[in-house]
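Attaching the record inline, Q. Sequence:
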Amino acid sequence: MSRTPFCLMLLISALPAVLGGSAISAQDKYTVQVPGGLSLSDCRGYEDWTEVAGSVPQGKINVIVANPSMIEAYQAGFPGNGKQVPDGSKIMKIAYKSEKNAESPFPVDVPDTLLGLGCMVKDSKRFADSGGWGWGSFNYDAASDTFTPATLADNPPQANDAKCGFACHTIVKAKDYVFTAYPKR
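Structure, as predicted:
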């Protein structure tokens, strides 16, 4: 019976850790947090939420998605029904750089590189001083595949709290601070 040398056994046992090290060191995006404000974990699962609408600011394409609670509010007639959005409702804006689709037979812009995320969370107790909503903006760096909280130098500016969107969203206070409508389908 042959014996496996101790060094070979040690190498074999360490191999999965070495090879899997890159997966272990990847950023868990849900740990990213605005200092004193929202974290991406507040909008966990947004990748599977229902699309509400899109918007096209110059050079970008935004896809707005919402969790089931917010979708139910829209389907019940929000904002036209005059009701407030229920606590637990969440909206995520996914911002992409736009590019021309080279394969399309007509001019069309499509999402290219992910630029960042903007999260809104309705919690009347937690965010009593900002219309019941908390906001968070997160920049994405494609080179490192990481997210970072936006800062006051970004557009939109992000302070170290969950009120970053409150000033802009007061324009739509009558719509419970929500800009995006749910278009006919």
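Residues 27-175 form a domain with the Chalcone isomerase fold (CATH 3.50.70.20). The radius of gyration is 22 Å.

More tomorrow.
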